[in-house]
């Protein structure tokens, strides 16, 4: 579904958190991980070494499912939004920071960061996507329309 949205230029809002997320995994979860992920984790460290501990901390590849050009944009957006977050008190920030639309950039995907996750219900997030992709709102594949209170 994501690939189809990218290829057809359909509205796609990618919500980002951190570029280098580390997550704890139980040994059993790591053993069940896709080979592609395991290969990226073993960089000189023997796989047996990784599986010795009960809990292993893993760094996930950053948006490896996106084409390089979009991944580069996402990285720039994260850097720019980090700068904005570092100089602005959280109380003065919007619940959702989004990438600015610029000439020469494809309209989709767009990147955003949830600053106040609890303030963004599914309906409010769907309304934000519709607003960000005004021209393509009828193709939006997000959750159904919420009540007017959600907007």
Task: Write up this protein.
This protein is an alpha+beta fold and about 150 residues long. It has two domains: about 1-20 and about 65-150, no CATH class; about 20-60, no CATH class. The protein has six helices and five strands. The protein has helices at about 1-10, 25-30, 35-40, 45-50, 70-85, 120-130, and strands spanning about 15, 20-25, 55-60, 95-100, 110-115. It has a three-stranded mixed sheet, covered by helices on one side. It has a two-stranded antiparallel sheet with strand order 2-3. The longest helix has 20 residues, at about 70-85. The chain is globular and about 50 Å long. The two termini are about 25 Å apart.
Indicate the topology.
Blueprint: H1 2-8, E1 13-16, E2 22-26, H2 27-31, H3 35-41, H4 47-50, E3 55-59, H5 68-87, E4 96-98, E5 110-114, H6 122-132
Parallel strand pairs: 1-5
Antiparallel strand pairs: 2-3, 4-5
């Amino acid at each position: 579904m994501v690939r189809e949205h990218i290829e057809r230029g359909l509205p796609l809002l990618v919500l980002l958190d951190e570029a280098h997320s580390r997550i704890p995994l139980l040994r059993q979860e790591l053993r069940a991980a896709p080979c592609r992920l395991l290969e990226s984790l073993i960089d000189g460290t023997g796989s047996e070494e990784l599986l010795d501990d009960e809990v292993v901390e893993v760094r996930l590849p950053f948006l490896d499912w996106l084409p390089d050009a979009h991944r580069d944009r996402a990285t720039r957006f994260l850097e720019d939004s980090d700068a904005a977050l570092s100089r602005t008190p959280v109380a003065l920030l919007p619940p959702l920071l989004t990438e600015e639309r610029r000439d020469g950039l494809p309209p989709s995907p767009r990147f955003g960061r949830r600053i106040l996750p609890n303030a963004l219900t599914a309906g409010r997030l769907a309304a934000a996507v519709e607003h960000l992709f005004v021209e393509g709102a009828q193709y939006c594949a997000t959750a159904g329309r919420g009540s007017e209170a959600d907007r």
